[in-house]
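Section 5.1 Outputs to date
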Amino acid sequence: MVSGGSVPAWRADVVGAANFKGAVGATLGSAAPYLAGRWITLPMGPTVNHYYVVGTKEKGREKWGKFLGRDVMVYRRIVYYELRKLTKGPIAIIPPPLHVEVELSFPTKAKNDLDNRMKGLLDALRIAGLFKDDSEIDELYIRRGPIIRDDQFFGGQCRVKVTTIDKGEAS
């Protein structure tokens, strides 16, 4: 355990202190920067095929189970800090109902399932505080983008835009 907290040492270096989870549902003032309707460029998230790992949570413990993979926890932290960098402050929660557009650009022409990347991305955006719950998403549009072979996005990139659906348009 990290001294003075309840975060295991193996997790502290990945997700930071326990207050990292405090990003979800934070109350924000009306002056908080708003990301609704802006294209946000992020690194490609982990595939759902590698979302969970099976084994022991900590060495020396007999507790077996299914746990989030290290890549998932790192990706959540990256998304949080990328959004904080864009807003230069707190992240404003976008009110529901939501329309989400996603463009996934892979680094090669290899076969990739678009839908396998959605869980990691949407969970990371929710945990970062962009919206309260992914059940608020009424429309989800995913498309394959151009091949990106960039050093910054060596594993590909995704662009995402989240907007509120006008109440008159929602079904």
